Amino acid sequence: MIRKYTVSDLNRCKQLIRESLDGSVGYSTRAIEEFSKEIDDMEYFKLRSRIGEIYVFEDGEIQGMVCADGDWIRKLFVKPDYRGKGLGSNLLSHAERIIGKNGFNHTFLYSFPGSEIFCRKRDYKLIEKKNFGCETVEVVGLKMVKYL
Q: Inter-axis angle of helices 10-22 and 29-39, to 10 degrees?
């Protein structure tokens, strides 16, 4: 069931993100550590829940999440054991519907290592490559767009 995120979901969402990154191709251990520092900041999630609309898929426990933020899709994560079963597609479609209902005719997202093919299969087109990271870690993100 897809439902709206609540503050009580915070720790389970942080764990979901860690598990998702651990199971992803292309992320170094250092990159996962740096990203984990970001998600450990509770203010980050408080801010996200005010700016955008966060949704989670729960089936006894949280298996996936996504954030619809203006015309952006952010933080689409699915536990590794649930990948390839349509959950990511359902969360992405849900966020796209929310964005469309909010008056946008397009949506943007950044695709990172291991997810580009997933996004292309769902009609996202590459518009820009960008390097993300800090002093010690660099990850290439692909800015993609889809017209709704």
A: 170
Q: Domain span at residue 86?
A: 2-104
Cα 73 to Cα 127: distance, rounded to the nearest angstrom: 15
Q: Which segments of 40-86 does DSSP mark as H helices, in order?
A: 42-51
Q: Is residue 11 part of a domain?
A: yes
Predicted TM-score of the model (pTM): 0.85
Beta strands 106-111 and 125-133, pairing class: unpaired
Alpha carbon 57 to chain centroid, angstroms: 13
Chain segment 21-75, per-residue pLDDT in tens: 876 666 667 777 766 666 666 566 666 666 678 888 988 899 999 989 899 998 8
Q: Count Cα neighbours of 7 within 13 Å in the Cβ-side half-sphere.
A: 5
Tokens 């093919």 locate to 117
Examine residue 6 and state whether it is found in any structural domain, yes or no.
Answer: yes
